[in-house]
Amino acid sequence: MKIALRSALPDAEAAAAATAAAAHAIQLLGDVKGKTVSLYMPIKGELDPAPLAVKLRTAGAIAALPRVTAGDEPMAFRAWLAGDPLDKGFGGIREPAASAPEVVPDIVLVPLAAFDRRGFRIGYGKGHFDRTLGPLARGQRPFLLGYAYALQEVEEVPRELHDVPLDAVVTETEIIHCNPARDGV
Q1: Comparing C-alpha atoms, which of 134, 153, 173 is closest to residue 25?
Q2: Maximum Cα interatomic distance, the chain, rounded to a whole number of Å
């Protein structure tokens, strides 16, 4: 599976991929000054958004991280500054303290196990992002950016009714525009 492939990447190759993907993301996102961007804390060999976080901070963006509020509820997005203490949340994922200010993201960086060029993704089966992205898509929809290694691409992800497609996917090799109607942020 794709998780095993990405987890097997040598550290130097993973770091180079993270740097290259960050450059592609900044190219795609453009002016992010004052925009709130939800990042994630990587697990299971996910593409590390740390180089992107540095670029976003330099460009004046406000960083946030998702926090699981309850097992079957949508996640909340909390403001986060590098160096802020993080709690160990659901599944051991590091997340901001419950006391951190809640924010509404303009851009959501979405981790994934696999993706296709239509913008559909496979997560980890717990549904946290699906439960969160659905309600967000019905409101003032943030730009949904998949963030992954190119090796995580598959021909087609099976689609379910509740799935919300990504607007774009950034990898270390390219920017994939999945929703031409939302080419800009």
Answers
A1: 173
A2: 42
Return the pLDDT at 54. Answer: 95
What gap in Å lies between CA 110 and CA 127, rounded to an integer?
12
For 90-110, give one letter per residue: b (16+ CB within 10 A) or e: eeebebbeeebeebebbbbbb
Binding residues: 41, 46
For the entire predicted model, the pTM comes to: 0.89
Q: What is the C-alpha separation between 131 and 178, in angstroms, rounded?
A: 21
Binding positions for substrate are 41, 46
Fold of 2-63+109-179: Rossmann fold (3.40.50)
Smallest CA-to-CA distance from 53 within 45, 62, 105 is with 62
Judged by average pLDDT, the poorest of 4-8, 58-62, 136-140, 172-176 is 136-140
How far is Cα 16 from Cα 36, in angstroms, rounded to an integer? 25
- Gap between the Cα atoms of 106 and 38, Å rounded: 8
Lowest pLDDT segment from 36-40, 92-96, 124-128: 124-128
pLDDT of residue 32: 97
**Angle 11-29/50-58 helices, nearest 10 degrees?**
30
Name the residue with tokens 């509740």: 162
